[in-house]
Every structure is written in structure tokens, then in C-alpha cells.
Amino acid sequence: MDSRGYYNGFGGAFIPEILVSTFEELSKAFQEVKNDPGFWQEYKEIMSSYSCRPTPLTFAGNLTRHFGGARIYIKREDLNHTGAHKANNVMGQGLLVQRMGKKRVIAETGAGQHGVATATMAARFGFECTIYMGEVDVARQRPNVFWMERLGAKVVAVKDGTRILKDAINEAFRDWVTNMDTTHYVLGTACGPHPFPEMVTYFQSIIGKEARKQILSLEGKLPARVYACVGGGSNAMGIFSGFMDDPVELVGVEAGGKGLDSGRHASRLCSKDASIGVAQGYKTYFLQDSDGQMKETHSIAAGLDYVGVSPILSHLKETGRVRFEAATDKEVVEALSLTIRKEGLIPALESSHAFARAYQEAPCLSQQDIIIINQSGRGDKDIFTIADAFSDPGWKEFIIQKAEEYNA
Amino acid sequence: MLESCIRKKRQEKEILLMTHIVIGYPSFEDSFQIVKEMVEAGVDLMELQIPFSEPIADGPVILKANQKSLANGSTVQHCVDFAKQVVRSFDIPFLFMTYYNILFKYGIRSFASMMSDIGLHGVIVPDLPPEEGEEYLQAMGEKNLAPIFIFTPNTSDERMKKIAACGNGFIYCVARKGVTGSETTFTSEFHDYLERCRNATTLPLALGFGVKDKADVDFLTGKVDIAVIGSETIRLVDQKGVEAVGDFVRGLR
């Protein structure tokens, strides 16, 4: 990476002039904490006392026997406070905001996990907080809106564009160009202008650092493969960074939606529908048309249907260091169902993409091989979507009853 | 080329007016009619915005115009054809305004050649800082086109000088923080800012963001070379129709 955050031509900082000095300030603050050995210690301490770090690495004995191939381990990011790896990034950026002396934070959110995590961080540190969320996602993930508001955040439903994650990012930038003096934008994933991809990866690298240490202590050897789902790419960058220099195959799993040939998916790195472009402040693969207009995306998982992807992952695709695959909505629901029944674990729909691919490959590996799946978040939050996916009759009846109660 | 054109016009007028349209909003026919009204009302130069799906620096008014134009099916080729027609029909300098991805996907060099063939004078790309613009600057330079760069109240004196060295034609000074289309109050702080802009470059200065009526234009006269009216004419078209644009522009100066 060079000083403008380029990874083999991907990345950069394509920002409006009004934000240039804000990014200079942020880059400087981030460099300072990176060079301060006390900072990582402070970060680790807050993550162990406020969240649940180190998160366990769980051996999935039943699934291992079920597939009869590789030994399956699951990295439990779902056990973080607020139920996802998002906590790692927001607490790190929260400490940075304290150092910069800003009093207000803003964030975009897709599934709502990053919004809830940011709202808890803001409550804990005493920051004012505004969360931008696409109107479609507000409808899909209403329980998270409830929690953000309870936590004292103002939730703005974004009604422009496709009304999902990318539109929430645009709106957050519009807030930031007005309020940069008091406000920090807590970008939720390893995307956006430099230094965000590097900074978010830095905070999420705690996942990979722990996982590597844990597998060596449990098994005395490295895994053959590591699986992570890829939306913006922060949980994938987090776990992959622990194994980057090892002889470990890294597999990123994107949202295959209704299938790669259907046009209704969010696969930027393993479909022909994406090409290199510059939007939202950085250069990467985007799902766009030949004019450069962004396309609509689809996934059963609100956290994965983003048009762009981390520039670092685009770079790792080109070098071949990471292999990218897609899992369809249908495969994801099946994998989720199996995980719940076999292990009593409830992965988020996002994380279930990684499980789906790992389950296809595990039987082909030998019993001496180990694989790690990153369970980036827990699925309880998806109860409305998952209940719909399973077409659960008892749940439907309950909702109808509940609605009648409110109408009475 | 653009710079000398502006200087020549400035000998006749105390302040120049630059207006803006989003191509294809509300329709291509209306866009052409708006340009006609504006030129006949005495506008001196004009920005033609090629719509983009992620216009990060634009406020709600221009954002919605971008989306509406795209929803109507506007393509970059339609916009290029439109610009060709406009340049042929009216004798003032026209510029493109758009986001970097549009140039990037078109091919930076092809975009510059196309602009030169059509007879456009320059382009404003609000998400392209000079540091990311090496190929762009070279391509614009080869075709004698003006890459228009931006000063803001947050830009340091040192950086203003650096930006000015890359710019050509004029410098677009953003009046305040925020996005296009909201209110600007012109304070004493604003005077200091304009003075910093003036000291940083010999290029003509244009001032935009929140300029909306005669009072604003009067205030800017003698301070900058060009007053930029952006969102206000789109608001006017939305509320009173295309026909209202000419009288509005005539009332500004």
C-alpha cells in the first residue's frame, strides 16, 4: 500500500475537496494509534471487558461427523456484544474519536448490525449519534431500528436511490461534508476512501490473530482453509489477515442471491456483472452498467447486498491469494437450517454464506484437514426473514395475533 | 482558451453568470429549452451535468434530478449527443460536470477527445482531487481543455496554491461546507476566505453553493468573476416550469 491507500491499483481517496483536511486529520490520528503500542492493549482490554473477546473457536463435532471430511471449527464472532464482528470496528473507531476530541458520530447501516454497534459505542462514550439506513433495510430489519432508537441514536430512513446500503453511505457522506468539525463518520466496513479500508481491517484483524493462536493451541497445526462471507469485506479481512502469510487457502463467499445468471445477486468478485470503477470515494470492482451507473443488487442477507467491495479484497482476488465463491439464497437457508439443528448455533444469514460454501467443500477434504468458518454474526436478529424463508406457520399465526392486539 | 474567453467577457460585464442543468431533467426536450432560455437571458457560461447514480457531493435537489434523469433512461451517449446539439446551437462556453466514474468508464482519453470534438471548454469533477488525477490532467492538457478544480473554506493556503497549479480556466470556490442547494450566509469569515482564494491564484474565480438571487449576485460583484447558480434554477423549474427560467436569470444582474 502506498500513502494514498492503493493496493495494486485498487483503493485511493476520491473525495470532495471539502473533506480533504478531515481525511488528513483522520489518517494522522490513525497512524499515531498504530504506532502507539499502548493503544492495541487499550483496545484489547475494552474488547474483553465490554464485549466478549477473545471469542471462542468452537469445534463442530456433529457437523464434522455429518460430512465425514475436514474437521470443522467455527470462530464465534456472534458472541460479541450486539451479536456481530461489527463491535470490533466501532469500539476501535470510538477510541480514535475520543483521541480526536470529536463529540458526534454518524454511520451507515445495511442489516442494522453496524448501526446498533455504533449506537452502543456512542452511548458508552457519550457521543451524539445519527444512523443512516436505507428505507428498504428499515423495513427488513425493524428490530434493529428499535434498539438504535432506544440507545439514543437518531435513525434516518434514506429514501433516495435504491434505498439500501450504498444510498445510506451517500447520505452519511452528505452529513459529514457539512459537520466534519464535530463529527466522525464511523464507516462500517473495509471500503471507502483511504484510510478506511486499512483502518477497519486493522481493528478487525483481532479476529484472525485470535483464531490463529487458538487453532495452533487446539490442534497444533494450521487449517487447510478459512471461510468468510464477503459483503463490504470487513469480517473476511479480519479473519484472513491472521493467515495471510501462512500456507492456508482463504475463501471469500459472496451473495449469489437468486443465482449468478439471474442478474439478481451481489457478487462483485465472482460474477461477470461487475467491473472496475470509482464510486463512494474509492476504486474497486462494482456492480455497474457500461456507463458506470451502479446496478441494483439482491441478497437474502441485508448485510451483503452492497455494490462495491473492499479494495484490498479486489487486490487479493487479482493476485489469487483469496478464492471467491458465491452461495445462493436457497443454499444459505439450507446451510443455516443444518447448522441450527446439528450444532445448536444460529449464524446470521450473512455468515451462513460462508457455512454454505464450507459444507460443499468439507466432504472433499481429508479427515486430517481442518477448516475454520467465521461466524461473523448471530441470526436471532433475522427472525422475520428467517421465519419467512422457512415459511414457519406458527410464527405467522403469532404475528397476525400480535397485530390484532395492537389494532384492538 | 476558457480563461481568455472569461477575461474577454469580464471586460464588458462586472460579474459573469454561470448556470447549471442536469441533462435529461425533467426531459431532454425541457433541458434544451432551459438552456435556450438561459442563453437568451444572458448567461455567460454553463455546466451540463451528466447524471450519475451516486452523486455524493450534491444535495437533495440535484440528487433527485440525477435520479429522475437516469430513471427516464438517460445514458452517457444521450448526454454527449445533447451536448453536441447545445454547443452547435448556442454561442457561449459550455462545460461538463459529472463524477469521476463516468469519465473512468468512458475512458479518460476518449472522454477528453469527445469533449474536444464537440467543442466543450472544460469539466468539473467534484470527486476527483488533483492527487488522483494524473491521467485526467494529462488528457485534458493534450486537448487544451480546462480541468476545473475546487477551493473550499477548509482548504489551506498551501493546498490552494497546489490545486491552482493543476487547474485551468477558472477556480470553482465553494462558499461553505455542506452539499449543493442549501442556504449560505455571507459573513466576514467569508470575506477572509475569498481573500485567501484571490491570493492563491491568478485564475478567474467562480463562487457557488447557495447563490440564489440578485442580492447574492450583487454581493459577489467586485469580489469574484463568476457567480454560479445551481440548484435554484432546478427548484424554479420544479415549481414554476421551464418558462420561468428566462425571467429569473434576467433578474439576477
What can you see in these coordinates?
The complex is a heterodimer of chains A (408) and B (253). By secondary structure, chain A is α/β, with parallel strands linked by helices. Chain A folds into 2 domains: 18-48 and 85-196, Rossmann fold (3-Layer(aba) Sandwich); 53-83 and 206-389, Rossmann fold, CATH 3.40.50. Chain A has 15 helices and 14 strands. In chain A, the strands form 4 sheets. A 6-stranded mixed β-sheet of chain A has the order 3-4-14-9-10-13, sandwiched between helices. A 4-stranded parallel β-sheet of chain A has the order 7-6-5-8, with helices on both faces. A two-stranded antiparallel ribbon of chain A has the order 1-2. In chain A, β11 (274-279) and β12 form a beta hairpin. The longest helix of chain A has 24 residues, at 196-219. Chain A is globular and about 55 Å long. With 253 residues, chain B is α/β, with parallel strands linked by helices. The two termini of chain B are 25 Å apart. In chain B, 53% of the residues are buried. Classes of the chains: A alpha/beta (408), B alpha/beta (253).
Indicate the proportion of strand residues of chain B: 5-15%
CATH top level assignment of chain B = Alpha Beta
Radius of gyration of chain A, CA atoms, in whole angstroms: 20 Å
Shape of chain B: globular
The shape of chain A, in one word, is globular
Structural class of chain A: alpha/beta
Report the average pLDDT across residues of chain A: 96
What is the succession of H and E elements of chain B?
Answer: HEHEHHEHHEHEHEHEHEHH
What is the CATH architecture assignment of the largest domain in chain A?
A: 3-Layer(aba) Sandwich
The chain-level mean pLDDT of chain B equals 95
So how many helices of chain A?
15
State the strand order across the main sheet of chain A.
Answer: 3-4-14-9-10-13
How far apart are the first and last residues' alpha carbons of chain A, in Å? 61 Å
